[in-house]
């Protein structure tokens, strides 16, 4: 992926870096520092074909690396002040009088500083006069693996798990070690290594049967400054030890968890804590005992608290057994309806993990109104790097622009400027803990992510989580240069492909924010009515007159009332609602005219014809790179694009013919509709 370290051939750049790295000193007794040192050694050897000459004394070195405590006696006042202004994981890289300093507030900061320096080298930036002070915007920068012990990955599109195989934790942990390197290089600091759906055997991860091996994995991650979390089964006391209840207010249950947590920390002293999916999609939870989510989360929080452990409680809670035809049970309303009334009741070490949209990772959704709505409850936003609903790593869909749009959304919760980005950074409400989590997209495929270009989503997720002000284009450029080199043509063309891909995917799939229309179960390819008459609460309500979901206050489900003004007004009033989300919020006739001047039906036809053509354009761009691309990656992406074209064709034809038949309205340009 992006750590392949192609040799630098430009003599000038090579000389510059060799000069900076002439005599390097680094304090090296801690595992994180050792890993950081190792990273630098690998990168320098491969890119500069050069072995670092490690100096013993700071005085003799011309590049000084360490944390601020170790280097206290050698730093100038200005450097100390700079560091004091940065978060724990922050670092500086500076050149003063021909001498370079890379200093972290902590060892983790040193690690991030080294990765930053390596990135500069990959980008061939001039290293002779550096003045960098950097820190993460978000406290939690987390990855969730949805991996199962049998080796499968829920919503995994890149082969099997790198953690588990045939009911066992893998013996050879080389791939896990590499993954830790990748994650730390993009600033990730937390990982949960098992699926949020904790089925039978994974329940035992928190027992002696698995803890010794999980400890090995935790050690690997912790040497890269990444803390390990586990998803747990809320009914563990019953499953593991035959207790008669898992009621969170039961004394015996609480004692059980207390002992359990003590045992876990015996093995893994820096264990991060638990992720809990409770009372959701058939998973057990406090509702069984007439308790609420705060009761459930707080019980676990109390037992984790002495160890600085956290409870990450997911808000993907809705009734999946009940169709909705009345306003009270709109699935989009569910998270807010369940959790907002509980604000103020959660302990300080509980974080609520909230999906970016109110439904489920669709190509286009409004931002979840629960984000920011709880002023006294820590929150994490959850993205999905795995492309469950966005092409499953067969179709190209660079998701950074989508996430940037979400992060830039102004909730107005505390007046203008209350953006999601500031909320999850803990700057709007005073959250003790907050940040960003995401479902990973990696597996044991040779290229890690199924589609080679889907690596950009993992890379971009980390970079964005560290610094949400980076643009989609900047992130794409960094990734392309590190992955494919810096030839102008390659850069320009792949960048164009990535930046246009989300819109293209949206064009040929479900229109105007209505979502779904996917094949039930697998969620790839079109099936327009696949979920329409099922219980999952994901409808489009298309009939012969019109389409869309009425979520207004007056005639619909009232979902729009969950937003602050002016968003409530904008979404609630048909004439104000942005085109791209129109069918999420309103049911309209096919001939309703959009702000862009097209009717809804014509827009559906136009975008679907266009989306398919755009995929053909992507293929042409890629094909034009054959002469500059290695054969393996060229052929691989070419093959994926071909499959994407077939998928786009199916979507185009099914959507267009479905709406043509429903509405009876012909395409204004008389194109053939199958
Ligand atoms: C949905 C997935 C399902 C997950 C669920 C979740 O289809 O496999 O278990 O989300 O987030 O998107 O818990």
Automatic annotation (TrEMBL):
The reply to whether Transmembrane helix figures as a keyword in the UniProt entry is no
Q: Which keywords does the record carry?
A: Carbohydrate metabolism, Glycosidase, Hydrolase, Polysaccharide degradation, Xylan degradation
Q: What is its EC number?
A: 3.2.1.131
Q: Is the keyword tRNA-binding in the record?
A: no
Residue span, Alpha glucuronidase N-terminal domain: 1-117
Q: Which Gene3D superfamilies match?
A: Alpha-glucuronidase, C-terminal domain, Chitobiase/beta-hexosaminidase domain 2-like, Glycosidases
Superkingdom? Bacteria
List the signal peptide residues: none
The record's annotation in SUPFAM superfamilies points to:
(Trans)glycosidases, beta-N-acetylhexosaminidase-like domain
Domain (Glycosyl hydrolase family 67 catalytic): residue spans on this chain: 121-448
The protein's annotated catalytic reaction(s) are: Hydrolysis of (1->2)-alpha-D-(4-O-methyl)glucuronosyl links in the main chain of hardwood xylans
Family statement drawn from the similarity comment of this UniProt entry: Belongs to the glycosyl hydrolase 67 family.
Q: What's the name of the protein?
A: Xylan alpha-1,2-glucuronidase
Query: What is the species listed in this Swiss-Prot or TrEMBL entry?
Result: Gracilibacillus caseinilyticus
